[in-house]
Write the C-alpha cells for this entry.
Amino acid sequence: MRGWILDCYPDYEHDCIVVWLKTEHGVDKLVDRRFRPSFYVKASSDKLGKVEEGLRMLGVNDVETEARTTLMDPRPRPFLKVTLDEYRQLNQLVRLVDMWGHYRDHELYNVDLRFDQRYFLEKGVFPMGLLEVGTEYRMLDSQDLVHYPVPPLSAVQIKVQVQAARGIPTNDDPIMQVSVDEDVLEGPEDAVLDDLLEILSSKDPDIIYTEEGDEFYMEYLAERARRCGLESFDLGREKGVRVSKGKSYFTYGRIMYKPPAHKLRGRIHLDSGGSATYARSGVYGLIDVSRLSLISVQELARLSPGTAISAMQINQAIKDGHLVLWKKNLPEGFKTAGHLLNSDRGGFIYEPEVGIHDHVAEVDFASLYPSIIVRHNISPETLTCQCCPDTTKFVPGIGYPTCVRRVGLLPKVLEPVIKRRLELKRLLREKRVAGLEREAVEQRSDLLKWILVTCFGYTGYRNARFGRIECHESINAYGREILLRTTEMAEERGFHVLHGIVDSLWLKGEGDPQAFCDEVSEEIGISLQLDGVFKWVVFLPSVSTGVGALNRYYGLFQDGELKLRGVFLRKSDTIELARDLQNDMLEVFCKADDAREFQERIPEALEVLDSHLGKVRSFEAPLEKLVVRHRVAKGLEEYSQFNDSYAALRQMRERGFDVPPGRSVEYVILDGRSKSVWERVKAAPFLRGDERYDPAEYEDLLLRAAADLLLPFGWRFEALKERAHHRRPIAALSMPM
C-alpha cells in the first residue's frame, strides 16, 4: 500500500499511534501499537540511582542508562532513559521526577515533544509525504524536494446560519440553515443534521473548511445533534473529536486569544476564519511547512510560525544525536556595563526624510537575518565555543569568537529553508508557473517568509528552545555592518539615502539601481534585491513628534503597484468608512506621475474628504461601515475609565456574553459624550439597523484618516477640522450634536 500521510496523532485510550493515509483509492487507517515514548533524566550518579529506584517502585521497569549528548555539551554523558507503556503516564512521571529533584537537581530531556513529531522522527517519515507501507515504512519522496507530488485532497466548505435570539448565536438557538458548498440544507434540525452527515458520507472530503468552526460552530453542531437525540454525529471519518481549550496569551506587547481547537479524526478541519497561519499561507503553505516541521497539517494550522521553526530545530538536534532540554536554563553571560551598551543594540536605522520624493529606488536584502545566521555560523553552541580557542572569526563590534570547526544547529536548519524560498521566488519572478500552480507557490513562499522572519526573534526570546541572547546580538551586529557598508557603496555611486531600516534602503539618484544591487550582492555575499522604483513616495512623520516615522509611508511604483505601510488602510481596527476614504484619496493621487503632480492633486483629494464628511453629516453612511473594532486587552472588571469599549463590553455582559482578553469587541458610536452604557454605543451584534450614530465622532475619525495621508503637506488633524468647520453647510451647523 502506498499513499500520503494525511494525519497522525496518539490514541491515549489504547496507547497507540493512529496514521491516516490518503491513497489512490481513498483513505486507510493504520494503527501502530508498538510505539512507546521515552524521556531522559540527567543528574549525579547517586541521584540517578534514586530516580531509577523510585520509578521501578511505581511499576516503570523499562529504565536504562545511556551515554548521550546535548547541543551545548557534545561529549557523551550518562542519562537515564525512561520508556513508557502508557501514553498518559508521560506528563505525570515527568512532573514527579522533577519534584523529586526539587525542581533544580534533575535535568529532563525529550519531554514535551509532540507525539506525532516523536513518531515521525523514530520512523524516518514526514506528514504529507508519499509513503510505501509494507512490513516497514519506506518514503518515496524527500523533505528536501521543492517540487514534490501533492496528495489529491478533496474539500468542502460548511457554513451554518443560526436563529440567534439575542443577536449572538448560542448553543440554545436553533439551526436556520446549513450549506455544504452549493448544497443548502433547511427544515427540521434533525433532518438538516442527518442530511449533513449523508452529504459528507457521499462526498467523503479530506478537508472540511469552516468559518469560526473552532470558536463556535463545531461545538454548536454537536450540541444541537445531542439535543435532537442523534445517537452519532461525527464530521470526521471516525468517532470522536480532539478538542483543546481556548486561552488568552500575551505576545509582542499584545493580548491575543486562541480559540479551542476542534480536530477531526481521519479528516482535516481548517477554520479559515480563526487560523492566522492558514490565512497567510493557504493549504499549500501548510502542506509545505508540515513536511519540513514534522507537524501534521491539522495541528500546524492552529500553531504559530515560531512553533514551526522551533520544531524544525528540535528535529535537526535529534537527527544529530542530541537530546533536547525541557526547561532551558542557559543564562546570559556576564557583561560589563560598557560591553552591554555596545552589544545590546538593534538594527541600523536612517531617519526618513519626511515629505514626498520622486524616482526613488527601494532595495532590500533577501532574508537578511536568516542569511547572516547561515553565512556567519551563528548558533547557541558556536558562539564562544570551547573547541576553537585560536579562532580568527569574531563578531564585528562585539568580539564574540565563533566556531570554525562545525556547522551550527541554526544554520543547518535555515540554509535549506532559505534556498527553498529563493527557488520559489525565482519561479514566480520568471513566471514559470501560472493559475493554481502559481497560487500554490505563492502560498508556500509567503509562509516560509513568515517563518524566516520569526527565526531571528526566537534567537533572543527567553523561552525559545534554542534561544540565546548572544546570538540575537551577533545577528544585529552583522546587520549593522552590512547596512553601513551598503550605504557607503550607494553614496560612492551617487545615490542619496532617503531612508534605511535594518535591511532596506530607499535611494534617490541617477545611477542604475539594478547594477548597484548586483554589485552589493557580490561583495556582501547576500542577495540585495530591487523591489522597484517609485514614481513618488511619501514618508510620513510621527503624529506626536513630527520626526520621520520608521515604517509609515506610501508610494506608487512605476508599474502602477501601490505600496502602503503603517497607514490606516493597513490597520485592523480602522472603520470601513475611513478605509473607503483613504482608498478614494489614494485613487486621486495615483493619477500623478511625480511629486509635482501629486501636490497639484491635493485639492481634489480634499474634495473627496468633503464628500465623505457630507455623507456622515446627512446620516447617509451605512451602519456596517461605521463599526469600530477594538481588541480587548483586559477583563471588564479591570477597566478604570468609562469609555466606548467598556460600554460595549458591559452590553455584552448584560446580554450574557463575556469577551476574553485578546478577542475583539465591535460597536457603533451613538453618543460619544453619554455616560449611559446603552446610549453611548451599540455593540454590533445587537444592532437593529435603525440606530442614529454620532456624526461628530465619525467626522473626527475621517479627519484623522485624511490627516494620516496629508500630514507632510501641512494638513494636520486640527487644520482639517478647522477647514471642515468653515465648510460645513448652515443646516449642519444648526444641527444638535
